Amino acid sequence: MRSSLILSRRDLEFILHEWLGVEELVKRPRYAEHSRETFDAVLELAERIATEHFAPHNRTADENEPRLVDGRVEVVPEVGRALRVFADAGLIAGTFDEELGGMQLPHTVAAAALAWFQAANVGTSAYPFLTMANARLLVAHGDSGQVGTYVPPMLEGRWFGTMALSEPQAGSSLADITTRAERQDDGTHRLTGTKMWISAGDHELSENIVHLVLAKVPGGPPGVKGISLFVVPKHLARPDGSLGERNDVVLAGLNHKMGYRGTTNTLLNFGEGAYTPGGRAGAVGFLVGEEHRGLTYMFSMMNEARVGVGLGATALGYTGYLHALEYARTRTQGRPPTSRDPATPPVPIVEHTDVRRMLLAAKSYVEGGLALGLYCARLVDEEQTAETPEERGRAHLLLELLTPIAKSWPSQWGPVADDLAIQVLGGAGYTRDHPVEQFYRDNRLNPIHEGTHGIQALDLLGRKVVVQDGAGPALLAETIGATTARAAGTEWAGFAADLDTAVTRLHAVTATLWGAGDPAVTLANATAYLEAVGHVVVGWLWLEQALATGGRTSDFHQGKRAAARYFHRYELPKVHPQLDLLAALDRTVLDTPEAWL
Fold first, then answer.
1. Which pLDDT score is estimated for 323?
2. What are the distances in angstroms from CA 7 to CA 318, 421, 544, 566?
3. Which tens digit of pLDDT belongs to each residue from 232-264?
């Protein structure tokens, strides 16, 4: 059977079973009904649905993006049909409790399954991705009535969910949002305001849309401490769960993106008076949890989305790499430098060393990114189901530290893999006769949404590194040290020694940055810091994968070792010039006024 050009089943099997050992999770009560056979069956189902129902309309949805017609959104019909198959297979409910209709799948397995859909058609997969995260937030922070009303129809795929944070005037600066939520005598709130860049914010793909909206209740504290979270459904629900009045949530317009075109991206007006449910102005909202704690609740959804965005960036880079690899193996052109006789037939371009260099680089990025995303998913399983509070706490601490890296590193290097795929195809690469140009356009959104590259850098250096007096970086260094100790005396001892050196330098540079005495100087260097830490982390995960290959000599395992050697020799050394820059507390950017730009 021809290998898939969407994703590598063999690589997923290696990461899940040969490295992460997910079958060990079935020893825990939550996953006791599962086995390796059920895990593999879910992954096979995901591959089949992604291949048969998602991939075929990826280009169609790109060329026929959502349109606003008479106040309603039109998308190509294949999107709705694919989502129905996805929901009917139970994949939206996969990780949820059985009592909610879920399968109680480990997050590691569910993330691997979702990667098939992100690689096959990232635009269509965004709808269930957001819905799952929305439902998970309500289960964690909503009351029993909210869970009972909104979660089951979302898990069944009858209703979809969104997250509505940004506003036109505020962007990522959530402290400056102006959407208001006025308390009502009946315990509800009435919301007025505008939200921008809301993915899946309006469509006709489901019976209802459940918006999770950040807003400020008048009289609350200023800034982010005054933000509350509300459930604001497109249609209000009656006590029996059926649809009631239309809520005053109005689609004001669609945003037209360079990629990710299959997902509607919207400007929404809340409470503009187009609808007056109950005869009163404003969109009806239901407070989640306590007032003024909305951003804390929303971060549970945002952090899940950030890791998911990183996995999506990896998936798009991965499918680009696989398409380029197939092209390089079948496209003949030129002859090797050692045989320039024009009478000899041209060779497949994969035989040219520079093409192999590009493919090996892309392989190191996408397989490294997949390892990072699934390792973080395994940390979620450890955080929720490990045997002791200490183990759960360590997993939580490490996941918190790695989240900005898991979002941003693949979002930076996944598009580079797609860029390399275009380069491998040469002149064909930037034509629409081949899909790699779309993969690049789709992937270019990932460094921006769910917190830009720079915001993740500020989160890492400004928050995650210093929390609990640096406990996160200390735990990461300890965890990496355990890996390098295992590599001592093996063929990977040199890689381990170089990784230890990078970790030691990183620790010293972190102390220098925070010892500068000027937060402006420290945070002016945050992006270089994020990128250096990301490369160290992925270098560690490549050493982990190399050790997991053992002595096996199949082409697959040899390919893993080749990619690990590439990352060691070509990529890990890149961190040292960045660390040099950071250690110097460089002020170039900080001291450049706007007028000089």
1. 98
2. 6, 15, 21, 21
3. 999 999 999 999 999 999 999 999 999 999 999
Residue with tokens 């450890």: 382
534: containing domain: 453-589
Matching residue, tokens 């860029």: 419
Burial, 343: exposed, middle or buried (Cβ in 10 Å; 0-12, 13-18, 19+)? exposed
Burial of 363 (C-beta count, 10 Å sphere; 0-12/13-18/19+)? buried
Q: Cβ(540)–Cβ(480) under 8 Å?
A: yes
CA–CA gap between residue 219 and residue 381 (Å, rounded): 40
User: Which are the catalytic amino acids?
Assistant: 450
SS3 495: helix
- Which CATH number covers residue 315? 1.20.140.10
* pLDDT beyond 70 at 1: no
State pLDDT tens for residues 433-479. Answer: 999 999 999 999 999 988 999 999 999 999 999 999 999 999 999 99
DSSP string, 275-337: --GGG-SSEEEEE-SSTT-HHHHHHHHHHHHHHHHHHHHHHHHHHHHHHHHHHHHH-B----T
CATH number at residue 61: 2.40.110.20
Neighbours of 318 (CB within 10 A): 30
User: Is residue 252 within 8 Å of residue 267, measured between CB atoms?
Assistant: yes
Residues 199 and 311 in one domain: no
